[in-house]
């Protein structure tokens, strides 16, 4: 309910009705709200990237203005109610390059800097995070560390890194997973498991993200457990959970939060 396409359906219009109900519920029940998310290649309104009502792309200056206005409006609206924000989400590819999103095509790598700066200006007390999947890969790990160092070198605030942790029974490699925890902690930021789950389905595509369409495709094509999970597979799942939480316990001084995915 906090994605840009929901909050900003048209230029000059902000719709906080659903998100406000969510935040109020959390406040009424003493639950901490983490805002998610301010910049993501998915679920962004089409009008952000176009010139008025035409199909031509917006200019760099226009997109920058829209991005800053959106972030300052949203973060300002929830100031002192959302104490933390996922500012950037899934901006880096597995090979360590920046995702060629509309933000990147128009603004280059600067779009991340713009977002973190605007969020901090809107609420100087809020903690600001970068969140991504497949963070155990070496190239992506190195790229994320560079991102943190670059932001800090420019005097920008970044408090933590979210390792989404959409895991499977045979991925990620747990040694590489631990290396990422150590590497991110060494960058001087908090490390969090932000979307933790374990997929028992076969994963021939090697996908490790949260793309709804891809997950649906996997279930339709590859789900052999429509009648329930066999005992042997359940045991495998139990062991995987145990292995992960052994890692989290080992690195408990570095990990500030574990949030489970899909709990309702």
Structural description of this entry:
- Helix content is 43%, strand content 17%.
- Helix 7 (174-186) links the parallel strand 5 and strand 6 (190-199).
- The model has no long low-confidence stretch (mean pLDDT 93).
- Strands 1, 2, 3, 4, 5, 6 and 7 form a 7-stranded parallel β-sheet that branches.
- The two termini are 15 Å apart.
- It has helices spanning 4-7, 17-28, 60-77, 102-107, 110-122, 138-153, 174-186, 212-222, 231-250; strands at residues 33-40, 82-89, 127-132, 160-163, 166-168, 190-199, 255-260.
- The chain has one domain (4-260): Glycosidases (TIM Barrel, Alpha-Beta Barrel).
- The protein is α/β, with parallel strands linked by helices and 264 residues long.
């Amino acid at each position: 309910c906090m994605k840009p396409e929901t909050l900003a359906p048209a230029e000059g219009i902000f719709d906080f009705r659903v998100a406000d109900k969510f935040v109020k519920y959390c406040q009424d029940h003493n639950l901490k709200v983490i805002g998610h998310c301010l910049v993501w290649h998915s679920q962004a309104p089409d009008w952000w990237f176009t010139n008025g009502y035409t199909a031509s792309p917006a200019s760099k200056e226009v997109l920058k203005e829209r991005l800053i206005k959106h972030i300052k409006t949203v973060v300002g609206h929830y100031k002192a109610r959302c104490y933390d924000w996922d500012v950037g989400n899934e901006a880096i590819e597995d090979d360590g390059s920046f995702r060629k999103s509309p933000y990147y095509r128009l603004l280059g790598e600067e779009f991340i800097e713009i977002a973190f700066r605007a969020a901090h200006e809107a609420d100087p007390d809020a903690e600001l995070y970068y969140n991504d999947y497949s963070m155990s890969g070496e190239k992506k790990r190195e790229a994320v560390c560079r991102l943190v160092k670059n932001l800090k070198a420019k005097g920008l605030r970044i408090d933590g890194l979210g390792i989404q942790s959409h895991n499977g029974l045979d991925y990620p490699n747990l040694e590489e997973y631990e290396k990422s925890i150590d590497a991110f902690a060494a960058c001087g930021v908090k490390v969090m498991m932000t979307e933790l789950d374990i997929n028992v389905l076969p994963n021939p595509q090697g996908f490790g993200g949260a793309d709804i369409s891809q997950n649906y495709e996997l279930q339709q094509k590859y789900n052999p457990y429509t009648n329930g999970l066999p005992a042997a597979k359940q045991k495998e799942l139990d062991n995987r959970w145990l292995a992960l939480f052994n890692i989290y316990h080992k690195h408990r001084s570095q990990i500030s939060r574990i949030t489970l995915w899909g709990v309702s």
